[in-house]
From TrEMBL:
Keywords on record: Methyltransferase, Transferase
One Pfam family this sequence matches: Methyltransf_31
Iron-sulfur in keyword set: no
Name of the featured protein: Putative methyltransferase type 11
Organism field: Anaeromyces robustus
Lineage: superkingdom: Eukaryota
GO molecular function: S-adenosylmethionine-dependent methyltransferase activity
InterPro entries noted in UniProt: Methyltranfer_dom (IPR025714), SAM-dependent_MTases_sf (IPR029063)
GO process terms (BP): methylation
Residue ranges occupied by any Methyltransferase domain in the UniProt entry: 52-181
Amino acid sequence: MKDYKEISKKSFNEDAEKLNLEESSEENKFFMKRESYDIVQEEVKKENFDDFLDIGCGIGNSIELLLKEFPESHFIGLDIAEKMIELAKKKKLSPEHTEFIIGDAENLPFDGHSPHQSFDVVICKETFHHFPHPEKFFTEVYRVLKPNGRFIIFDFATTEISRWIKNNITNSFSSHGICHHYNIQEVTDLYKNFNFEILRAENVTDDRMIVSGRKIIKEQTK
C-alpha cells in the first residue's frame, strides 16, 4: 500500500525548496490562489476566537494574514513537511502569539484541554484530500476543538465525472500523495457523523468548496 503521508511530505518539501520568501513577490508568496485565502479568512472571522489551529499550514500565510487583525489571539500552524515549517518560522511572526510545529493531522500533538492545547477555530485548507484516514482526522479535530468550536475545510471541488476519473485512475499515479477527491455530500456526511452542526457547505469557486461546522457536545449516556 502506498505511504501517502511520506509521499505528501516529500512533495511539499520539494515545493518549499522552490520558494525564496525574500525574493518572492506578494503574488508568488500566495502560490495557492490568493482569493481562496480571502474566502477562508471571512469564514474564520465569523467566530470569536482566542486559540486558532491551521492544519496543513504550509508556510503560514493564513496565520500571517489573521495575525494582523487579531494580534492578541494565539495561533498554531501544523504541517507534516518540515521544510514548510522552516519557512513559516523564518517569517518571524510574533513569538508570543504564534507557533509552527511539525505534525501529523491524524495524530494531533495536543491534549485538548491545557492552555493553547484546545482551539476555538480549526481550519484545513487545500489539504484534506491528502489524508489517508479521514475518520481518524475528524476524531482528532473533534477532540481538540473547544465546545461549540468551528471547524472549516476548504478543498478541491470538481465535476462528478472528473472526480471519478481522479479517484479511480489518476490518483494512483499522483506524486503528490493525493488520496481522495471529495464532493460536498461526502464531507458534510463526515461532519454529521462526528457530531458537527453544518453551518455552511457550498462550492465557492469553479474548483473549490468550503464546509464549516460547529462542534456539538455529545450527550452523555446514562
